[in-house]
């Protein structure tokens, strides 16, 4: 036996046993969790603003990214339902280093997501206030405080317990159902009275092949992320081996349907050039209501849109904070991250630290810029780093097909050949999306510098993770020698 293998086994023996966590989430909770975190209304407005060709991009992204992703998560969650999900799968397939880097990239990429999605909620909240809120539309302090306050509330609720935190997710899922129902109803009424505002002729559905529109594809693929998050809390889900796949099938079907139907409805009611801004979804709702003389509907719908943004932040914070928790147990982060609160039985240090990091990202993202610029920066910071872990996930799916399958595991129909095919398709699509994410938009004045910034920031974040990993590994080796 080599020294390296001996050291690896010794390190495994030194790892802190995973603390027992209460299993609070049932299938109903998990479906609502996926809907609250997986469907963001802002992407419907973003897609509609790009015109009817986006419908074809939605379908392409659904078939070539979302279906492979959901299928891989479905089987991997049933094979290995342990806490940590992506971290555990990559670690099992390629070793500790790959598992840590996949998790590191994922949780770092989500830090700018929190203020970005809450900025969308802050913009929508102004429609609840009506004219009294108009003066805050470009007030950076208001947007930043909105994000900070809600990140604080979400963090505290999840520290107190998933039993309490899940009710925030369940409540915020209303921010999906009601606004989508309102959008479909209003669009049908507008179309019945005024006709369709957009032509859906076959020629209009063909995606443009110019670079500007190709870059937009990465945003659509980004919208389909989120179905992997439930598995991060595998040991806090009742009968996770079967609950996660079943909830994923139901929620995934609804999510894809709502994105496509919502985009079509918005384009039926409004021309694409009238849909824009940080609060694009509720702005579109406002235009529809005004055309139908139903302005009284704007404020209540806006309130539910706010819930949608809060639900997105809550779902990703509660789930993604489990990654540093498991890394703390494995001692690749300080062991304090692996602690469970004696009273609340939650990984309170990991949750608290992650929530504080999100608040810091909100402060840094807003510094010295406008609300619109801060929103764009926060979104662009998320995309490329967010897709790197998916490359690990799809590669792990292919590699882990060689391992035996336990009885009762839910597998992809068709077995290993279909699993490898879907994972390979998802892997190639992910690589394409990463490349598209690097390309700067047409309005960027200094494109070479923009590319250097994107690649440089990505390498910096990954490099930081490499340093943290090897410093921790070195400490563990020293501890073994003493």
**Would you identify the CATH H-level superfamily?**
Amino acid/polyamine transporter I
Q: Structural class, from helix and strand content?
A: mainly alpha
Q: What is the name of the CATH class?
A: Mainly Alpha
The rounded distance between the terminal residues' Cα atoms is 21 Å
User: In which range does the helix fraction lie?
Assistant: over 70%
- Biggest sheet details: none
- How many discrete structural domains? 1
Give the number of helices.
19
Q: What CATH architecture label applies?
A: Up-down Bundle
- Give me the count of strands: 0
Classify the oligomer: single chain
List its traits.
mainly alpha; 482 residues; Amino acid/polyamine transporter I
Characterization of this structure:
- There is one protein chain.
- This protein is an all-alpha fold and 482 residues long.
- It has one domain (21-472): Amino acid/polyamine transporter I, CATH 1.20.1740.10.
- Helix content is 72%, strand content 0%.
- The protein has 19 helices and no strands.
- The protein has helices at 3-14, 27-38, 41-49, 53-79, 86-94, 96-110, 113-129, 140-160, 162-172, 174-194, 211-223, 240-269, 280-291, 298-320, 322-329, 348-366, 371-399, 415-438, 447-481.
- Helix 2 (27-38) crosses helix 9 (162-172) and helix 8 (140-160) packs across helix 9.
- The longest helix is centred in the C-terminal third of the chain and has 35 residues, at 447-481.
- The chain is globular, with a radius of gyration of 22 Å.
- The two termini are 21 Å apart.
- The model is unreliable at 1-14 (pLDDT under 50).
